[in-house]
Amino acid sequence: LLGAGGGNDIQWCFSQVKGAVDDDVAEADIISTVEFNHSGELLATGDKGGRVVIFQQEQENKTQSHSRGEYNVYSTFQSHEPEFDYLKSLEIEEKINKIRWLPQKNAAQFLLSTNDKTIKLWKISERDKRPEGYNLKEEDGRYRDPTTVTTLRVPVFRPMDLMVEASPRRIFANAHTYHINSISINSDYETYLSADDLRINLWHLEITDRSFNIVDIKPANMEELTEVITAAEFHPNSCNTFVYSSSKGTIRLCDMRASALCDRHSKLFEEPEDPSNRSFFSEIISSISDVKFSHSGRYMMTRDYLSVKIWDLNMENRPVETYQVHEYLRSKLCSLYENDCIFDKFECCWNGSDSIVMTGSYNNFFRMFDRNSKRDVTLEASRENNKPRTVLKPRKVCASGKRKKDEISVDSLDFNKKILHTAWHPKENIIAVATTNNLYIFQDKMN
Amino acid sequence: QDTQEKESVTPERAEEAKLKAKYPNLGQKPGGSDFLMKRLQKGQKYFDSGDYNMAKAKMKNKQLPSMGPDKNLVTGDHIPTPQDLPQRKSSLVTSKLAG
Questions:
Q1: Which of A76, A285, A417, B17 has the fewest other C-beta atoms within 10 Å?
Q2: Measured between CB atoms, does A193 come within 8 Å of chain B?
Q3: Confidence of residue B64 (pLDDT cuts 50, 70, 90)
Q4: What is the value of pTM for the model shown?
Q5: Which of A47, A277, A333 sits opposite B95 (nearest CB)?
Q6: ipTM (interface pTM)
Q7: Element (H, E) at A56
Q8: B91 at interface of A, judged by CB pairs closer than 8 A
Q9: A225 and B37: CB-CB below 8 Å?
Q10: For chain B, which residues make up each domain, given as ranges?
């Protein structure tokens, strides 16, 4: 059972690390998104250079029963290129903001990748045979002189080395004035939404020349702007329901059956704030950087700067669970504001059974919270722990006072080492954790 | 615990006091218009070809004034030159994750 809690805390072991060892990180190599596909067999990453790398889990080796298959490079391609919108004098980054997989329908795999302005549907297909024995062409493709053809033969397919090809099948462009932060595929597997700072659009996967605007929070007068959309996601089972989060810490649930333009929410999730605790930083740290439905569809999780909150869709006035990610940073907010770290956008994810949630922190630490046992753990993604099957040692940050041996003090944390993106295999205890430019894969210790 | 909080300043408020001491002119509404507008304008580049050519003509052989560290300042404070603009070539190099 995945993360059943109780006495069965998962023991995480290092499995693999991908990426360059050197400390000098090129901007293009900064990982910007990580996503398993629906079966967990494929793992995709996107980076600031607009590239996508897909890893495939190798088939389980019968002789190596103590570990699951490793992830090896399956395909890599340039998804987006830098652009300049001359009309608006706007530089458009090629950075991949999000990747979302479509469920597999046939032999090929499909994914959506997006930068700030354009969403693309990519088809990844395998070719392991090629036709040989053409009558009018040589094997190298040159045309034969027809007058030299004296006999006819039937071309046949012969096996060849596996080639994985990625081709863009649809380009969904020109629908976003502001910067796209989310894409989410509907449970109908025909439509998807894309959200920018002020608007959310609904697309059909087959149609690129039009999309429907379903949320518009742009005020008539921009001076009146008080909040922006930070993330959006479709409900995993109800194809008419989606949520979007805001920079003010609220989540709105909308029902597309209610009206064409879902400016009026069906539900508003907001935790009341204690006015006596309000400070300059309150709104900034309440801004939600990620929202994710549980697999069951009964709950949703939000990530704000210091915590992870679990909400029951039936209860709008407060979360049912709150987990502190790095509460010790509350007394460092001044310097975190000065170095812009307070604006870092951390993501969060559920395990396959919705019993454990995970999110990243600084110093290449990442945190897991077991909802059943209420226990949490801090682990580190570091090349120092890279012996396969060595169990990762829990880390502890000393907030104040006397630092114990093996603890690290808050002031020693490296705020340039952020884990913003993590992903959990949909079925197994395999996790992918992205540091700035490396991808770590951890597995639970199999006995 | 309530009395303790009333007596001492919360960590957040203490941090706020630190920030205001450093930057006395900091606006009252951090989540307000200015901050959000800056977020919405990410990627905006300003270039006035008139300014640029005038300056080039005046300067002749002298070095053109270049941009300060903040490349997002509205034009008028500086004159962007081609050397200041970041190279916008796409990555033809394969990702190191695939190496």
A1: B17
A2: no
A3: low
A4: 0.88
A5: A47
A6: 0.76
A7: strand A51-57
A8: yes
A9: yes
A10: 12-36
